[in-house]
Structures are given as structure tokens and as C-alpha cells.
Amino acid sequence: MKVSVCRKAHFNAAHRLYNPKWSFEKNQDVFGKCNNPSYHGHNYNLEVWVKGEIDKETGYVIDIKILKDLIKSEVEDRFDHKNLNEDTIEFKNLIPTAENMVVVIWNLIKNKLPKHLDLKVVLYETERNVVEFDGK
Amino acid sequence: MKVSVCRKAHFNAAHRLYNPKWSFEKNQDVFGKCNNPSYHGHNYNLEVWVKGEIDKETGYVIDIKILKDLIKSEVEDRFDHKNLNEDTIEFKNLIPTAENMVVVIWNLIKNKLPKHLDLKVVLYETERNVVEFDGK
Amino acid sequence: MKVSVCRKAHFNAAHRLYNPKWSFEKNQDVFGKCNNPSYHGHNYNLEVWVKGEIDKETGYVIDIKILKDLIKSEVEDRFDHKNLNEDTIEFKNLIPTAENMVVVIWNLIKNKLPKHLDLKVVLYETERNVVEFDGK
Amino acid sequence: MKVSVCRKAHFNAAHRLYNPKWSFEKNQDVFGKCNNPSYHGHNYNLEVWVKGEIDKETGYVIDIKILKDLIKSEVEDRFDHKNLNEDTIEFKNLIPTAENMVVVIWNLIKNKLPKHLDLKVVLYETERNVVEFDGK
Amino acid sequence: MKVSVCRKAHFNAAHRLYNPKWSFEKNQDVFGKCNNPSYHGHNYNLEVWVKGEIDKETGYVIDIKILKDLIKSEVEDRFDHKNLNEDTIEFKNLIPTAENMVVVIWNLIKNKLPKHLDLKVVLYETERNVVEFDGK
Amino acid sequence: MKVSVCRKAHFNAAHRLYNPKWSFEKNQDVFGKCNNPSYHGHNYNLEVWVKGEIDKETGYVIDIKILKDLIKSEVEDRFDHKNLNEDTIEFKNLIPTAENMVVVIWNLIKNKLPKHLDLKVVLYETERNVVEFDGK
Known about the structure:
The structure is a homohexamer. By secondary structure, the first copy, chain A, is α+β, with helices and mostly antiparallel strands. Chain A has a single domain, classed as 6-pyruvoyl tetrahydropterin synthase/QueD (Tetrahydropterin Synthase, Chain A). Chain A contains four helices and five strands. Chain A has helices at 24-31, 64-79, 84-87, 98-110, and strands at residues 3-15, 40-52, 82-83, 118-124, 129-133. The mean pLDDT of chain A is 97. Strand 5 of chain A pairs antiparallel with strand 1 of chain B, so a sheet runs across the interface.
């Protein structure tokens, strides 16, 4: 009998979508205004869902403070107020689409999470564009 | 390893809930004020979730513009600023409850979507009443 | 020293925007798809703001229950699940634009409100279109 | 072919997180300011999701009014404007964490729900802390 | 030429509405379930609006970090995870209605704010009940 | 008797806060991580409020489509998916703080708006940081 627990967070970052193997024209064709060479940016909203048994002593699946600190060290400190293409190793050779970002964030958190807990990450690039990844 | 991608949209429509095989009294009993013969209306909010592998070249599961255009042609152009009972063939013989609407919308989008992508549709009739369908 | 108190409410209605003195073509030109003769509809969200001195005995500007009941009798019972053009006397001869609606609602509530209280009404026709009226 | 239907609700309550088998210091260590002996409180937001086949006659999975009444009698009447630790039998011997609350609420609703319907409950303790339980 | 700048914050607290000069019955009559002697609680959301000239060197009306720290020291540290009636001197002899709370918070912040800045405070007791005070 | 009408919009942009007359250290001291030389970014949400008399023939203060087009040409086309510091003339020599941005946007719209209409602009840099300007 497992309960899911969610903590929300957010960070603000600049990025550019382009594939260095393609011409500027092909990038413009595929990525449109997201290919702006001087970058644009977003307020990213994040939901981190962790699923597991309730601990009988605490009534917690996970102490939300542990989850909050994990999100801070693995996601916010790494990406907040950064240029994803220029300032991070994760997106040096990976296009920072929302899809690639949600997989990167899932792996960063999964690596630090106790093994018995399931993980799902939801990332809002804008209020209207959302991605979700649960490792499957 | 599959990622879900969501695009949100909305449309405004009028409708009436009633079963033509029943008396006005029975309709009133089952559907209450939703049975108003001169119609009432809603701002419908829509979430269209598409699930698939990330394309290595683009970093996309699906170009969100394709999804946006699909929602426009299949849903918004069909239902926005319409009377669902009077102006649409989909609800000529089908009661436009949120449940029936979400199945209709799922089928309309599924028919135009590449076969390898999974689809889930969430429809908000009001901020407090929501329905969801994933084809299963 | 005056404090403002707000109560939120909502109602769902159908309407059509057209001026009966104009041709269908002119109405189409001015009101576009809002001129659909079979109507369309909205979830209207309402904020009713009342401003006055705090009563020393209760700590209230107005008992929020009084305000809630007033909104129910004057607005919700009158407009919820109605066709504004067909089912209401207020919009028999008045185009139910958000602007006209907010003035009508302001007057309906003002008439029943204790005289010493100021009133402001905010009406959301959609999440993106809002109107506001304070009687001045 | 099943559709999910959601009804949202909310209630306001006071609570304190502590394990009576522990010292005050250990409780302080585990629960921090949530261990305040004079209590603190929350606006809880609730989503109740019910999944089943669409009834051909009504177009409903469940009459939303039945669901609304069920939420009122089982959740709102029991917990709204209450002190969870002091005023309820459910949390006399169970720590009112969001995790324990969502399981309690799931069971209360499940007991009254027609057997053929699946149930999922989502509980927002704050805008940023959410839990979810579907009985599995 | 003045610009307004807003910072949002939130805190969670328990409270009870009652006038100690009245009988339990009269309190019940006026405050209803808010008179529960074991308390209930809320997630309070706060908007602090500060108005002034833009500083030419910084482009700021006020460094939002200063405002954030001020809200933390004057409001969050004082009221978050507290019982307003039991744990605070501000509401020892003042009924903690939203109206009284917004005036108290306005005064606490005003006292620490540079004199040339105007102040308005908005307090959400729930998503539907809001109060506002600007010192006039 | 004047009614206010609001249209909401949004745009995504990158920016950096720094004063070119200062050292990097002083900029870091004043603007912190907002001084990142490779930029960061935001989803900006915009509310444009226009106030005037209701036109008797149309029931409109302003045709919302005119307002929508004005926001598109003056704000979205200019700033959406842009680097404010690099790609715009407005912020070549002006720090793109939210305060400076709201004044720039107010002037851009005011110049194109019919003279008899009052204008107020609200700009959300994040969900928690908001600025407002009405020209006074």
C-alpha cells in the first residue's frame, strides 16, 4: 500500500534550442524562435513525486524537508538563474528541450533517493507546456 | 524509456444535458439545471498528453507546434464558440456530458496522431469538475 | 481607516453578442464568433469587494456569510445555468458583454448592500478577459 | 473503456504532528515547527477521482452531485473547521500527516462508493505539498 | 511617476474567532464553526505591495530581497505554524479575523519600511476570502 | 461611469541585470545571481487594463481584439523569445528590471491607444514578483 508525495519547486533559466550538426536554416526550420542565438528564457515549475510505504513511526513516506533539500542541491543550485547551454555540463552536448530536461532531472534526483522509493518528475516549461517522466 | 508531453488549450461552448427518450420531468430529475432548454455554457480547459520516445536529433517527443495545430483543427475549430447540441454532428445524438466529450475529443485527436504515440486527454468543464480518458 | 473584503463566486451561462438594430453581417463584423445565433457560453468568475470600517465587536467589515448569501440571491440564482439573452430580464434589451454584465451585477448588489459600504465588482469572462467596475 | 471523473473540494483544519511515544525533543527534531503544541492549520484542497464505464442513458460515470454529497458527508462535515487531533476519532491515535490523511479519506469514501468504481484521492496540504493514494 | 512592486509570501496558522465579552451561544451565532474552541486553521497567502519612484542606478523601487527579508522577520517568523490566539501578543486581545490581521500586518511592515514608500497589503484567508488594506 | 477591461498575455525572454557603470563586484553585490553574464530568463505574464465609458452600440469599452492585436504588435513581437539586453533597443541602455520593463511597456501601448482611455499595466516576472504602473 503505497502513497505518493509531491514537493513543488521552481527555477529561472535561459536556453537555446539548436542541433550543432545542422545548419542555422535547418535549426530555424525545426526550432523556430527557440533557436534565437542570444537565448530566451523561462520560469520552470517542477513537481517531484515520490512513492512508497508510510513509515508507521512518523506517518511520512519521506520527510518533505529531505525532498526539499534534495531538490535544492540537485536542481535549483545547478540550474537556477543559469544559461542551460553555457553554464551547465548536463546540456553542453544535449539540446535543453523540456523532454531532455525532465530526464536529466529525474536521473539527478533518482541517484540520491533511497532505493525503495519510486520517482516521477513533472516539469512545466510554461503554464501551457508540460512534460512528465517516471523512468519507464 | 518514454516521456509524456502536454499541451493545454481551451474553448468556450454552450450545451444542454438531456436524454430525448425521457420526459422533461425525468430529464429535470437527472440533469437538474443542466437541462435548461435555452442552454447554459462553459469555458472548457483541455490538456492533451502524448507519450513516446525522445527523438535524438530534435530532443522532442513531438514538435509541440504539431500538437498545437492538431488541437486547433480537431477541437478548437470544431467546438469553440459553438452550441454543442445544435452546431456539431458529434453531439447531435450523444449527450454532451464531460465524460462523452472527453471520449469524442480523444478519438478525434487519436485518429490524426502518429500510431506510435500514446494519448491521454483531460477536460475541465469547470475548475472543480474534471474528466480524463486514455483509451483503455 | 477602511479595509476591503472580497468574496469570490462563479456561475455558468450561455450568451450571444449582437445588436438587434444591425444586420447579421454588421454583427458578424463587430462580434465575430460571439454572434453565433445558437449561443456559446462561459464559466464566469466573480469577485465582490466591499470596503468599510472594521466593526470593533466582531472584527468584521461585513459578515462574509451575508455577502455570500447576497451574491447567491442577486447573481447566482439569477444567472447560473441560464441563457443570458433568453432567460433574464436584465439582458433582454442589453447586449451581455462582460462590460454591461459587470455594471448590471454591481447595481444588483449595491441595491441590497448597507449604504455605508463601498462596492467594487470584478468579472472574469475567461481566464484572460476580465472587467472591473466600482460605480465611478 | 473507462473514464475518470474528478470533483474538487476543500476544508480548513488545525493539527499538530507528534508521536506520543517520543520525547518533546525527539518530536521537535522530527516534526520541527509542525510539533507546535498549540497547533497550526491549513486550507486542505481535495481531488476525488472516480473511474468507471460511462452509463449510456445518462452519459455519466457517476452523477457528480452524488460524489459532491459523498465528499460533504464523509470529509467536509467530519474535518472542516476542526482540530484533527482533538475533534476527530480518526486521528486520536494516528498522526495527521498528509500521508495518513489521504489514506483515511480514501477509506471513508471507498466504503460508500459503488463497488464497480475505482477511486483515487489527491490531497493538497499547501500549494506546494501534495499526496496521492489509489488503494494499491 | 511611481511604480508598485509586489512580493508574495505565505504562512500556515491556527485560530479561533470569538469575543470573550460574549456568551458561547452569541459567539456561535456570530462566528459559527469559526468559534470551534479547539481551533481550526488556514494557509494564509500574502501580497505586499510597495509603491515608489524607480531608482535610476538600480532600476529598482526596492530591492525585492529587502522586502522578502522584511516579510520573513515581521510576518512569517511571527505567525507561521503558530496558533494566533495562543502564541502571539498581537491577537491576545484582538479577534484574529482576516480584517484585523491585515491591519496588524500592514502596521508591522509599515514600521520598518523607508518612509517615502506607500504600502498596501492583501491577505488571502482562503482562495475565496480576501482582504486588502492600504492605510487609508 | 467608467469600466476597466483587462486582457492577459505572456512572453518568454532572457535578461541580465547589471549597471555598466559599476564593477562586476558591485553588480554582483546589488543584483546577485541576476547578474549572471550568460543570462537567465523568465516567462513574463502581462495584464493590460484599459478604462473608459461603455460604447452604447457595442457594449464594449474597447473591442478586446483591438487590445489583443496591440499587445501582440507592441509587446509580444518585440520581446517574445528575445534576449532583452542583446536583441532590443529599449533595453540597450536601460536595466531590464521588472520596474523598468513595466514603464516601457506602458509607454509602448499608451502611444497606440485612443487618447480617451486610461491605461494600467501589470507585469509578473515570476508568480511571486509583480509590478504595476498606471502612468501617475
